[in-house]
Amino acid sequence: MPADNLVARWTRATFLGWSLGFLLILVCIAVSSGVGLGDTQFPIGLGMGLGVGLIQRRLIAERTGTSAGWLPATALGLTAPFVAHDISKLLGLPVPYSLAASIVAGGLVVGVLQWRILRRHSSRAARWIVASLLGWTLASSTVVLNDKVMPRIPGIVGALIFIAVILVGGIILGAITGLVLPQVLASDSGVATQR
């Protein structure tokens, strides 16, 4: 598969996963509220991590022969900072909450967990950690853009603009990580990889 085709397919898959993740966030919030955990942040990381990981794993399996661990690495990695915040709040520790910062931290954890999978297939897998961190960081900028820059537009039009800006994050994440993925998964030409 040519690298440019992989970049396009990865970007599309990540965008679809991000869009699914947005819907899964709403489902996770509804479920957590239903069981009495309504004032927690972990459903945000869990929903988005599940959506992105679920859709990306097909392409990973196609390129590496397996997708084992990709979904949990993505979901748990992105959820971890949100859980840390929820636990600190439960313990009465004054840690300020930032959605964008939690996504950035989650992007780093996701990158490390996914690197552990990719290193079995490539000696260049460490690049993935940087790509993941950068991709999730730039994707999280859509949150900052909506909160700090975009004018407040009331009603359905404002809601649709807000959602559209957030969904652009999936394209950003897919494009950034997609540019690095072909480098990571290119044949090592006999270079031994870690198993």
Overview of the structural elements:
- There is one protein chain.
- The chain is an all-alpha fold.
- The protein has one domain (3-185).
- Helices cover 77% and strands 0% of the residues.
- The protein is globular and about 50 Å long.
- The relative contact order is 0.15.
- Residues 189-195 have low confidence and may be disordered.
Number of spatially distinct domains: 1
Globally, the shape reads globular
Biggest sheet descriptor: none
Rg from alpha-carbon coordinates:
17 Å
Mean pLDDT: 90
Order of helices and strands: HHHHHH
Instruction: Give the end-to-end Cα distance, rounded to a whole number of Å.
Output: 24 Å
Q: What are the low-pLDDT stretches, counting only 5+ consecutive residues below 50?
A: 189-195
Number of helices: 6
The overall strand count is: 0
Q: What structural category do the secondary elements indicate?
A: mainly alpha
Strand content: under 5%
Helix content: over 70%
